Amino acid sequence: MSDEKQIPEGGTEETFISHLVELRNRIIRAGTSVIVVFLSLVYWAPDIFRLLARPLTQSLPADGKLIVTDITGSFFVPMKVTLMVAFVIALPIVLYQVWAFIAPGLYQHEKKLVMPLVVSSYSLFLIGMAFAYFLVFPTVFHFIAHYNAPLGAEMNTDIDNYLSFVLTMFMAFGVTFEVPVVVVVLARMGVVSIAKLKQIRPYVVVGAFVLAAVVTPPDILSQLLLAVPLCILYELGLIAARIFVKQGQAPNGEDKDSGEEDGKATS
After folding, report:
1. What is the CA radius of gyration of the chain?
2. Which domain does 164 fall in, by range?
3. In a domain, 258, yes or no
4. Measured at the alpha carbon of residue 207, what is the angle toward residues 243 and 91, in degrees to the nearest 5?
5. Where are the transmembrane segments (predicted)?
6. Which of 96, 106, 140, 157 is deepest in the core (most CB within 10 A)?
7. How many domains are contained in the chain?
């Protein structure tokens, strides 16, 4: 007679449904947190947009200004900006809901790794956005306005186009600043060795400049402002990987050893 545990009929379906219910609840909680923050900020939506547009407005010539070419643009663009800010503020709650949903399926060593990764990823993403806002935007806009002056053309920018540009740059620099986390995860999980990461350094440098040429405006200054930090962050990732990963030891060496010992015990 088999000693295997019999799974009740319909148990798999009930488990699947329970997971769907939990996923729905987690999504509702994450969405509610974003909505609550958005409603708390919506009154200041025009001020938030003016703050976002400050790097451009400070670089515009005396006759330059932001314009609205869409009838509803003056209403929806500040709302989009406020929603973006609300999502960034509520992101720790959103990440916690994701963590709470996947945590039961993780091993203990994976649980210990997730929380530092979440905190560092969120912090680096904010640093990347701040880097773009305080350094990249003023530099690029000043350069473009100075280059536009000899043409004698009026520099009037549509607020919707400006928002699209800003979101693209925020995403590009936010993701770029995640490079140290990616390097540490790859080394820690044993996907790529530290020696291999050092070996591919020239390809990373070339890839950084290619990526910068694709996602930034077609001027050498903004491309350098993305490519150079990307290369520096890769080097910082290598330094962090040396700290968190013991060379010559498998990332999950303890789990593997314990598994072998259990196997010997059962045999």
Report:
1. 25
2. 17-246
3. no
4. 60
5. 27-45, 83-107, 119-145, 165-188, 200-218, 224-245
6. 140
7. 1
Tell me if 267 is assigned to some domain: no
Collapse the DSSP code of 267 into the 3-class scheme (helix H, G, I; strand E, B; otherwise coil) and give the result.
Answer: coil
Token pair for 9 = 């009929």
Distances (CA, A) of 19 to 76, 89, 108, 120, 137: 36, 27, 21, 28, 44
Spatial distance between the Cα atoms of 182 and 170, rounded to a whole number of angstroms: 18
Whole-structure pTM value: 0.78
Residue 253 domain-assigned (yes or no): no
Q: pLDDT of 172-191, one tens digit each? A: 899 899 999 889 888 887 88
Residues 226/216, Cβ–Cβ less than 8 Å: yes
Task: Say if 119 falls within a structural domain.
Answer: yes
Contact 190, 255 (CB under 8 A): no
What pLDDT is recorded for position 25? 92
